[in-house]
Design brief:
single chain, 1% strand, mainly alpha, Leucine-rich Repeat Variant, elongated, 2 strands, 440 residues, two-stranded antiparallel ribbon
Length: 440
């Protein structure tokens, strides 16, 4: 008498649980993991049928696993396996899906049809969708099927579609009209999933910016909406007024304030009008927000000249991370930061125990970006040509070259670097000497 094999439906459920649990363990990197409730439903359904239905080894011994065939052979065998997958018996249908999935990518068309087949039980369509995502993730031909699933009345099918569409990233833009309509009529939990999907779609989901701006008023949706707006960048300028209003909320916690400031930093245009917003943010009590504001000012380069006095004042009270951000920012502003040369000159003599003398190193780079207007820093740069760190010597030489003719007194020391043990330093010295010579 043939012995009973473990129900293939249970095997499929175990595979699904494993697949989804792996998503769950990576939830901090992938916020689109399948809800545990769906996994539980599939698991309980499998266990219930296992107790009343069995499949013997002999029943399927005649058909070799599709995974043992070549891609072409498996593709040719799929149509015959669909007969089992379309069985009125749910357990046999799930067994058929598991067999189809063995064909790998060749199984995608058949699985798409199973997902679209509204005559099939929900469990069968869900299993077909999971199998499809496993054998051919982000199959472009499957996009229309997932868009149609958004219109289903069953919440599990809709949630599956929302989650899977997020994995298509910008290619899911064709689902935006349906997602936006669904958002208007959905509960809070579904809205959260839709916002997460828009976050993955990125700038291509910009048409949802008004809805995301509205979501900022909901404390349960706010952080996720801020993340999505941050991903959209300057495409989401329509949400700027809402972000500014939120930033004025004194009850806002530090995390939300940081994310609001971050969204503003990437959505506001790179012009002088936005600089004043970040100058105000440099007064924030949270150090991370202050650093973010400084970096946002740096992104605006020469347009941020008005921020130089505030940056110089802030430097006196900031920690190492803040001071480094300010030094970098002054360099990014360039020649318009000439009034900060005395401060930058002092950084060239910094004796703090920073990694690889970063304060001196970044100070040299910033002085070089200001150019000839920073001529008073030349003696400090010459001293750095003898720094024990090769990268400091290299950047000091480069900065002297950028000063041009005003650094003529540095030529003897630069010539000494032509025999420096480090090739990068030698190259910087040769370049600096050439620049100084040609600018006389």
């Amino acid at each position: 008498m043939p012995h009973k094999a473990m129900n293939p439906k249970l095997l499929l459920a175990l595979a699904l649980v494993w697949n989804v649990s792996m998503l769950g363990f990576g939830a901090h990197k992938n916020r689109h993991a399948v809800p545990n409730l769906v996994v539980l439903v599939i698991w309980l359904f499998a266990v219930r049928l296992q107790s009343s239905f069995g499949v013997t080894q002999d029943e399927h011994a005649a058909s070799p696993p599709l995974s043992s065939l070549s891609t072409n052979e498996a593709g040719q065998a799929v149509p015959g396996t669909i007969i089992t997958a379309q069985s009125t018996n749910v357990d046999q249908a799930l067994y058929g899906i598991s067999k189809i999935a063995e064909a790998g990518q060749a199984a995608a068309p058949a699985l798409i049809k199973m997902v679209q087949d509204k005559s099939q039980p929900k469990e069968v369509r869900l299993s077909a969708a999971y199998a499809l995502d496993r054998v051919y993730p982000r199959d472009p031909d499957a996009l229309p099927a997932y868009v149609e699933l958004l219109k289903e009345h069953d919440p599990d099918l809709r949630d599956l579609a929302i989650t899977t569409l997020g994995t298509f990233h910008e290619k899911a833009v064709e689902a935006m009209p349906v997602l936006m309509t669904l958002y208007q009529t959905s509960d809070e939990q579904t809205r959260l999933k839709i916002i997460e999907c828009w976050d993955s779609v990125g700038p291509s989901a910009v048409q949802a910016a008004p809805q995301l701006a509205q979501a900022l008023r909901d404390t349960k949706l706010r952080v996720t909406a801020l993340g999505a707006l941050g991903r959209m960048g300057r495409a989401a300028q329509e949400a700027i007024p809402s972000l500014l209003n939120l930033l004025r909320d004194e009850a806002l916690d530090n995390r939300a304030r940081y994310m609001t400031a971050d969204a503003l930093s990437v959505s506001l245009p790179n012009d002088t009008r936005s600089v004043s917003i970040f100058i105000d943010l440099m007064k924030d009590k949270d150090a991370e927000i202050r650093v973010l504001a400084v970096r946002a000012i740096a992104d605006r380069g020469a347009n941020a000249a008005e921020a130089v006095p505030a940056l110089m004042r802030l430097y006196q009270t900031e920690n190492l991370q803040g001071r480094l951000a300010i030094i970098y920012c002054l360099g990014a502003i360039g020649p318009h930061a000439e009034s900060a040369v005395p401060l930058l000159t002092s950084t060239l003599q910094d004796q703090s125990r920073s990694y690889r003398n970063l304060v001196r190193d970044w100070g040299a780079v910033a002085v070089g970006k200001i150019g000839p207007g920073a001529k008073d820093a030349a003696p400090g740069l010459v001293a750095l040509l003898h720094d024990p760190e090769y990268i400091v010597r290299m950047h000091a030489a480069d900065a002297l070259g950028r000063l041009g003719a005003v650094a003529i007194a540095a030529v003897p020391d630069l010539k000494q670097l032509l025999v420096d043990p480090d090739e990068n330093v030698r190259r910087a010295a040769r370049s600096a000497l050439k620049r100084i010579a040609t600018s006389e």
